[in-house]
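Table S2 (text version). Query chain:
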Amino acid sequence: MKKCVGLVLVMVLLSSMLLVGCGPEAPAEGEEGAKKKAVLLVSGTLGDKSFFDSANEGMKVIEKDLGWETKVIEMGTDPSKWEPTLTDVSGEDYDLIICGTFQMQEKIEEVAPKFPDKKYIVFDVSVDYDKADYSNVYSILYRQNEGSYLAGALAAMVTTSDMPKANEEKIIGFLGGMNIPVINDFLVGYIEGAKSVEPDIKVAVSYVEDFSNPAKAKEMCLAQYDMGADIGFNVAGGSGLGQLDAAKEKDCYAIGVDSDQAMLFKESDPEKAELILTSMLKRIDNSLVRAVQLYEEGNLEFGKVEVLGLADDAVGLAKNEFYEKNVPQEMRDKIDEIAEKIKSGEVTVSSAFEMDDAAMEELRSSVRP
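Corresponding structure-token output:
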């Protein structure tokens, strides 16, 4: 009888051990055997065929090729919702919390110190590391001025060529989302690249002051084309789609931004796609994949900002079928030559981040039509 009681007690004890998790432990979140988790917070919505869509493509690669569990949260255009969403997500079990644009800087600076055990990646902006302890934040900035130098050089070649839609005026267009340093960094590179090809070039510059107003952007770009621009460059997020609409209406050339915009319209609007000679790619996707790979290797340096450019494949021109077909070989060879000079340091591109308002206005005035 005593033996039976003893056997029952042993069985009960073993059952209890299993229930409380004794024995082999299940892998914890983020440990070997369990998928790591990353979330992207979009301070707006997807579908801009530009900046945020590029970030989303990066998340797809992180999930498919690196095996992470990913989630993308569109926070909408109401800024009052962004910090609460960031705070809520910080309380969850994500290994990496990713967000970007200058609009999120203050939010990250406010929330990140409250969650010191969480890891944050911010792109296209940097937190102020002198302000507080941001040892859990890795910031990515881009040398968009380098890629835009190539866009400007191409635009100048086109407007001074005998290409079918080029006119006699030496005028090119630029559409900015807002008059802020990161957008002006594109403009500085664009102007310098254009002037390297044609010193007397004129650049029509317009700012929408809104990243999601394509109707207003279209009107501005129609005016640019009407004044003689035969090619324009949009750096305005969702608003930039209005420039592409204007290019189609006026049958003029365009240069897209961030994503490969010609290929995005290849099926839905082939007539528009034919007019987009290339896009200045700000490879948010590549930079996020690179960051996650470094994180996996234990080499992602939190607590600092990194600046990525042409040499890092973080910016550059899209070389798709439309570029190959519509841009003459001589121009393409010249663009490749200029790119190599930038990578080697033979050509140094100025930056809006190193210019005050007066210097920026002087530059714009020097090329005003």
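Notes on Table S2: Confidence is low (pLDDT under 50) at residues 1-30. The domain at 144-281+328-366 is CATH 3.40.50.2300 (Rossmann fold).
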